[in-house]
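Hi everyone, sorry if this is the wrong subforum. Our group has a chain we'd like a structural model of before ordering constructs, and none of us has done structure prediction before. Sequence below.
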Amino acid sequence: VQLQASGGGLVQVGGSLRLSCAASGRTLSALGAVTWFHQAPGKDREYVAAFRPSLIRTYYADSVQGRFSVSRDNAKNTVYLQMNSLKPEDTGVYFCAARNAWPVSIYNRADIYTFWGQGTQVTVSS
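Answer:
Right subforum, don't worry. Here is the predicted structure as tokens:
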């Protein structure tokens, strides 16, 4: 499975961006989880949102609940991360990751994911 993340850029505080994670080599419905992570400068990757294709259900980190949302386009085999009301602390590189099986309660851990995209930079300026 190959993942390609895109859509990052420079945006002002309060603005919006939509990131894309295009998958190839397997359909989204065959993946157990597709998850977005955020890595701020000098920090570890942190979980943002975990999408479970089989249930079309998404779990969000508290820091983005109500501001970010995940959607998918089966025809394009792509998962999107819509980011609204962006804050300076949202700045960093965003990665999408995937694994074959849903990881039950540990979907927020980066070390359990098998497939990773290359990351896309988001900069929120004040």
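For your construct planning: The radius of gyration is 13 Å. The chain is about 0% helix and 50% strand.
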